[in-house]
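Table S2 (continued). Query chain:
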Amino acid sequence: MKTNLYILIAFLMEIGMLVGCSADGIPEKRDEVLPDGLTYIRFGVEAASDQGADENTLHNLTVLQFDLDESVTDVTEQDKSLCVTARYLRNPEPETDADGGAKGYYLIGLKASTKDTQYLVFIANTGSMFQDYKGTLGDFKALTIPFDQKTNNGENQLMLGAGYVPVKGVDDEQTHPVILKRLVAQIHFNYTKKLEVTEARFTPISLRLRNVPKVLKYADGITEATDYPEKTSENFTDYTSIIDKIEEGFTWYIPQNVRTAAADGSYDDDFRTYVELSGIYEAPNMQDQLVTYKFYPGKDDHYNVSRNYSYEMLPVVGGVNSFDANVSTRNLTVSPSANCFVVAPEAGSEVTFDPHDSPGTDVAGTEIVYADQVIENQYSRIADVRPVWQTAENLIDVIFADGLVRVVPNAKGIDGNALIAAYATDNTTILWSWHIWVTPYAKVLDGTGTNGIYTPRQIAIIIRMSGWIVTWAP
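Corresponding output:
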């Protein structure tokens, strides 16, 4: 029995020697006699990003070894290759000499192969997500990462590098260079004002990134795309508006959006990523204008937004340029915030309001704070505003754009009621709602009408006879 126990312990020690790894992914046994099947490879790992981006810190590093030789050129066969080793470096530090000086390379234990080369993928800043990865190269390339402007920032940039390296069963003293590149593009936007009209003012109300690819694929860091993602509405989204601190600028990190020329040689498809800045322009002797500017980060490169690039956008707002196709304007009157609005069913009667402004004082004891319902930090939580119900078909039309809600009633004299609501990004959660009363007496109620003056009692009779639903506020 005792002899069998010694044999078992010896066997377990040998297994531990073969597979045991330190927290940094390097075999624990580090002397001149290497464990069978393992070999040390030296890598000079550095992060590189074009156009001066500086988010290059390696918080952690994972190395995936795929049993794939460089001689295999068929992509289908390449994608069948299995991952035979996964090494996770929690806090990667280069090797040091006896005096503590950095040697400029990382020493990583990989599985020796009889093939000339092995395909290695280096992934920075994904945490321990892949430390036990056992899938194929094709499986890895198909993995996606959902993106959101609130969670993807410059603090922990995802970077990737890949290439073929000989992994033999002997010590390799050559240092193999590895260049890590960001899987995303950086778009930094910060405008300045230089208004051409004396005493004019521009007040920003919404800053938004539009036509953004929804997800990122790890394959983006392995293969160079020429037309990606596919230009369909299912693959793109518009980020919700930034409504606070707009004048301080903002930086987004997004997946690449690249394209090839259309049949007519143009690159101006409907899915070009752009920054939309909206605000109120006020100038003497003219009605207030809602002005919206479009800025394209990849305009000088066929509107492509490429991974590992930084796009510095520093436009100057000079005023309302009606000759610029990327500038749109309309006359604007913003109504004070409320929970109920009254409009007349006739041409030219509409109401525009800012859904981010509180319609009143929060009711104590309800634990509902209006600002928390529609705003998160500097971001709008509102993805859309649309009717929940209306008492007649096409009673009203609702447009949510430029950070404002615009309610346009029918012009056919049809009266009734509607409920409109602000929806979150999941397109189902209602954040807040407003009642819209469509009545020919709208101008009488707000004091601008000419068809007589009605007492509150007469208005109440009209409401009862018409069957309208109205919520009165004190």
